Automatic annotation (TrEMBL):
Protein name: DUF58 domain-containing protein
Tagged with keyword tRNA processing: no
Native source organism of the sequence: Streptomyces platensis
Keyword S-adenosyl-L-methionine appears in the UniProt entry: no
InterPro entries for this protein: DUF58 (IPR002881)
Length: 436
């Protein structure tokens, strides 16, 4: 039973009134007895809480920073009118910070044997699965002097997907892909290109592409055109060890890597390539295999949504062994990891020969834009020291990147805003040169 402020106010007024008429002790006792009777009657007339029926509907997925709506249908099966305050509790990260009264609290009045639908609006601030905690109901009597309170568990899960901010770059990358694909006048030829068609020779065509047998049959110079190969295999590998947990700006490095992986996956699927995903530190944390182009992007976002970094050192040898099992034929492996000297030199470099022997490898790392800002500072003595430290950090990353390039690896070291488009450009460059 919950007493309200109205009960205290009635008690105080009654005590003040009878204090002038009856002896003090008798007046107080009378008021308290009358108030107790009113509270008990009010409580008895309050609709029961345990008999209430709840069902849920609404959104099951939403992108980070988006808006989701969950609907709670409340049925009052009793013979009394339900006058209640209801709190549909969710984790704090389901709402914007600083919200005094989240949009999951409701005041309702439901007559007997009727129902109402209550809508809660969520604005998640973290990726992953958000689970409804409980529904708390405070049912008041007609006088509002007392209330019954109880909780119901009404399960619901809202999966918050990565925001995919790099989607804005996709149209430009697809336009370049169409050029490489022979849909415009720009055609490429390389080690990994496929024959497309013949056309009459025009000045400026590569003479190495002349098809002499076709020319003999047609009695005109015939030139072969080429298009990049399709159905290449691409494996996106996210290293989820401790280095991926570091924050760059206001997001973890892992989130920036996810954004770049989504853009590359969407682009490669449109190019006709087969894309798989692997997240690994000491064991497989997420995996996507064998999806069609239409199903790939939803599968990637769904697999990446609950993924979090683990505060452990990644097992490079275990990762290499897992990659070998996932790539039975030549593939493009895109490894999202850090460029810290110690993990790369002690763990990654020893397994590189086995990875690059039959595969093309790209290492994509997230650079901290704050380092660039510090390197440009010269206005105070403190800024000069900070600039020196930033230059030292940049030099160490360059040395690590150069060691990787020495093994024939393409290295992309970009800030979160540039990592996704830079990685997409590197993929298109490899495709145009026939290295896939």
């Amino acid at each position: 039973m919950a007493l309200t402020g109205r009960s205290a106010l009635i008690s105080a007024c009654g005590a003040l009134f009878v204090g002038f008429v009856l002896p003090s002790w008798l007046g107080i006792l009378t008021v308290q007895l009358a108030l107790l009777i009113a509270i008990l009657c009010d409580l008895a007339l309050a609709a029961p809480v345990r008999k209430l029926h709840f069902t849920r509907t609404g959104d099951t997925t939403v992108r980070l920073t988006g808006e989701a709506h969950t609907h709670l249908t409340l049925t009052n099966p009793s013979r009394r009118t339900l006058r209640a305050q209801i709190r549909d509790a969710w984790p704090p990260s389901s709402f914007r910070p600083g919200s005094d009264i989240p949009a999951s609290r409701h005041s309702v009045r439901i007559p007997a044997a009727e129902r109402r639908r209550l809508t809660s609006t969520l604005h998640p601030t973290r990726r992953g699965d958000h689970h409804a905690v409980r529904v708390t109901v405070r049912s008041y009597g007609p006088l509002g002097l007392a209330a019954r309170q109880g909780s119901h568990h009404v399960p619901w899960t809202l999966r918050v997907l990565p925001p995919f901010n790099s989607r804005k770059h996709l149209p430009a990358k697809l336009a370049r892909l169409r050029e490489l694909d022979g849909r415009t006048s720009i055609l490429t030829r390389g080690e990994g290109t496929e024959f497309d068609s013949l056309h009459d020779y025009t000045p400026g065509d590569d003479t190495r592409s002349i098809d002499w047998r076709a020319t003999a049959r047609r009695q005109n110079l015939a030139v072969r055109t080429w298009r990049p190969e399709r159905d290449r295999r691409i494996l996106l590998v996210l290293e989820t060890g401790r280095t991926s947990a570091g924050r760059v700006g206001d997001i973890p490095r892992l989130d920036a890597s996810m954004d770049a992986a989504l853009l590359l996956g969407a682009l490669a699927a449109r190019a006709g390539d087969r894309v798989d995903l692997l997240a690994y530190d000491r064991r497989v944390r997420a995996s996507v295999q064998g999806r069609t182009a239409r199903d790939l992007l939803p599968a990637l976002t769904n697999a990446l949504a609950p993924l979090e970094s683990e505060l452990v050192e990644a097992d490079a040898r275990g990762l290499a062994a897992t990659i070998h099992r996932r790539t039975p034929r030549r593939s493009l492996i895109v490894l999202f990891t850090g460029l810290d000297a110690a993990p790369v030199e002690e763990a990654l470099l020893p397994v590189l020969p086995s990875l690059t022997q039959r595969n093309e490898l790209i290492v994509a790392a997230v650079a901290d834009p704050r380092i660039e800002e510090m390197a440009a500072g010269r206005h105070t003595p403190q800024a000069v020291y900070a600039a020196a430290a930033a230059e030292q950090t940049r030099a160490a990353r360059r040395r690590t990147a150069d060691r990787l390039r020495h093994h024939g690896i393409t290295v992309i070291d970009s800030t979160p805003a540039r990592l996704a488009p830079d990685l997409a450009d590197a993929y298109l460059t490899l495709k145009s040169s026939g290295r896939l």
